Each structure stands twice: as structure tokens, then as C-alpha cells.
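CHAIN AND CONFORMATION:
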Amino acid sequence: MSDTDVQGGPTVPRKRADARRNEQALLQAAAAVFIRSGVDAPVRDIAAAAGVGMGTIYRHFPTRSDLVIAVYRHQVEACAEAGPALLADTESPYVALSRWVDRFVDFLATKHGLAAAMKSDSEGFASLHEYFLSRLVPVCAELLAAASAAGEINDGTDALTFMWGIGNLCIGGGPDYDPRPMVALLVAGLRAER
């Protein structure tokens, strides 16, 4: 295929399959390292976790903020795509919601430190926050609506408020703090009386 699409406009060059795999491995490794050590973790730790050289990281992500933003977007997309998949493959909408909340908590753990890493780019941070809301609030709303329609949770839970509640439970608490028990109580509190 040429460098123009069918309508004659320029196309974005496609990455080779191995380059895409390397990028995906980098993003997954970086997310795991960020959870463990924060967004200021040494690049060599990310390279080691991904099984690539440091040059590969810098080819894909010339600056740390490029890497942090890419990890953030990758995690948002994974969380957004998980919602419909869980609804389709899980025995009940409530179970799908609970499993999605677990993934959302994982995402929030990756997100810690993002604001500090982007302190010099308040406009970029604001656009990422808008991206986060536009991708994840509708997914959460769909899961809540499905669980409500199935009679598994009470009606009227606002997705954004619910997500804020989860986020607030995930803030702080130090390195040994595990928000999952409290988040599980929040999710259990949605259950409809039977």
C-alpha cells in the first residue's frame, strides 16, 4: 500500500508487528513498575521488566512524560474495553461490575504520581483527565445500568459519583494500604434487597 489512502490523503505509517509488541510489552511493564515503585522508577527497571534495552524505550518514548502518558492512555483503554467484554462473558451484570471495579482499582494504582510527573504540563494533564472521563464514565454507567436492569443493584447510582468514591478509597494510606476490602464494601452496598 502506498503512503496515501483510498481518498488520496496521507496515511499514518503502520508500525511493524515486532515494534507494536515491544511497545505493548513496554507499556505493560511500565505499568507494573509504576505500581510497585511510582512513576519516577528508573528506566532500566522498566527495560528489564519488559525484556528490552533502554534504547528501545527511548525510541518509543523520548521523555518520561511521554512514557507516563502512554501508560495512562493504555490503561484507560484496557479498562474501557474490559467493561463490555465482562458484560458479555460474565454470568451476571453485578459480577461483571465487580470485576470491572477490580480493574479500575488496578488502573488507579498505576495513575498515582501522574499529577506530579506532569506538574509542568497542566494543559496536558487536564486533557488526560477529560480523556479518562470520556472513556470510563460511560463504561461504568453501562455496567451499573445492566446490573440495575437485572435487579441486582438498586437504581440511581451515578457512575461518576461511584467512580469518585472508589478513587477516594484508593488515595493515600501508604505502601501497605490495600483499598480492595473497602472498595468491595462499597460495591456490596449497591446490592438490591432480595
User: Anything to note?
Assistant: The chain has two domains: 1-62, 64-188. The CA atoms of residues 30 and 46 lie 5 Å apart. The domain at 64-188 is CATH 1.10.357.10 (Tetracycline Repressor; domain 2). The radius of gyration is 19 Å.
